[in-house]
Amino acid sequence: ENIQPSSQVARTRSIRQRNDELQRLLKLADSTDAPLRAARIVTKDIFQKENFLVLDVGRTDSVAEGMPVVHENGIVGTVVLVNDHYARVMPFLNTDFRVPGTVLPSRAEGIVRWGGENLNRLQLDHVVKTEPVTVGQRVVTSGHSNTFPPGRMVGTVDSVAALPGRTELQIFLRPAVPLYEISHAVVILRTPDPDAETLAEKPVE
Fold first, then answer.
1. Which among 137, 39, 138 is positioned nearest to 89, based on CA atoms?
2. Most exposed among 75, 94, 128, 189, judged by the fewest C-beta atoms under 10 Å?
3. pTM (2 decimals)?
4. pLDDT in tens, 59-101
């Protein structure tokens, strides 16, 4: 007799949490002029090095490959494959994912990636030792990303070390978005500039 009420309470709590998340995502849509498309995460594989998410939006919702995916707390990933009704997303917890990041307030810049092990730890590479980076500082997307708009949260500096023999700092971040907890996300309906992508991919002679 106690099992049924407990199950109902759990379902009610889960529904309330999803509704709260959707309300916050709607506020995110209200806070920007960029066209957005809210989506539900229908598949979540984040237990290996090549992790992916699947969203319940696709071409019929104006979603295309290369579009950034975000949450109210920060970035989620990039759309890499779409059909009419679904989109496959490469999240930041994928060893192939890269995004330029800026440390605030120092404005030090580097590249954020995931090392493939700890789900709660990202790396910020290519920041020289002379930069005043400290624990607790925020890292956001920089203006040098051809995918994400600048200023989106990526994570918070969790540790900084100046290792002997290296000219760069060893910086680890705690991700702003706990991917294993969220059930919804938002696709920013903008695609990378093809001219900029072509220029970036062209080898320098």
1. 39
2. 128
3. 0.80
4. 999 999 999 999 999 999 999 999 999 999 999 999 999 999 9
Q: Which residues pair with 43 in a beta bridge?
A: 54
| Tokens (6 digits) for 92 | 């930041």
Measured torsion, CA atoms of residues 20, 48, 173, 63, in degrees rounded to the nearest 10? -50
CA distance 33 to 190: 12
- Pairing status of strand 87-91 against strand 52-55: antiparallel
* Residue among 61, 69, 129 nearest 99 (CA): 69
Please state the separation of Cα 129 from the chain's center in Å.
26
DSSP string, the chain: --HHHHHHHHHHHHHHHHHHHHHHHHHHHHT-SS-EEEEEEEEEE-SSSB-EEEES--GGGT--TT-EEEETTEEEEEEEEE-SS-EEEEESSBTT--EEEEEETT--EEEEE--SS-TT-EEEE--BTTS---TT-EEEE-TT-SSSPTT-EEEEEEEEE--TT-SB-EEEEEESS-TTT--EEEEE-----HHHHHHHHSPP-
